[in-house]
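Quick check before the chapter quiz. The format below is the same one you will see on the exam, so make sure you can read both the input and the output lines.
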Amino acid sequence: MLGSDCVSVEEVAAVVKRLFEQDGHFPPIAKLWQPGELCFEGFFLVKHPDGKVQMAWQRSNPINPNELAEQGSSEFSDLDKAISAFIESEWPKGIDGIPLSPLCRP
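Here is the expected output.
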């Protein structure tokens, strides 16, 4: 349960999925870099018109946050698999010091 010492991966995945389905991308502020804009750093999910989901990542130039330094992506045809890959990539050691576990008990 959120607010405890343990958060289940399923709980996090459900929140990510709900917000992704609502906005077509996750996190809500994330987007692919465009010249002249600040570069969102980290992993994020983007829904494509063909229904596939892209897990992208990018980072900015450390001296100039308006310049893209690196980027990459993977494509998924299954949303649940994309969300699982996102969680494993973005939060491999948990979220803000709270570990993610397959099962959490109260």
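If your answer matched, good. The mean pLDDT is 89.
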